[in-house]
Amino acid sequence: MPSRFFAVTIFTAAMLAGAVANAEPLSPIPPSVPQAPIGHLQPRAPHFSSGSGAEQVEQDQMSAFDAKQHKLDMELDKSLNICRC
Fold first, then answer.
1. What pLDDT shows up at residue 80?
2. Which of 24, 33, 65, 85 has most Cβ atoms within 10 angstroms of its Cβ?
3. pTM for this one?
């Protein structure tokens, strides 16, 4: 009986060794953040800061537009004769 157990153990070990030898190697882990192609700029946090010059220009343009629209709205409200009884 012990020789039979020994033979089964040797056979199982040989099968496992063969399976491990035939296994494909593991592929390398891809980087968590893909890198930009060569010649391209990878965006960073400072590019999106709220105090940047481009952001301030856009905010000024929007503020000027909003002020003009508010003035036009007020003129339109004055010209309308709506009874609010």
1. 86
2. 65
3. 0.34
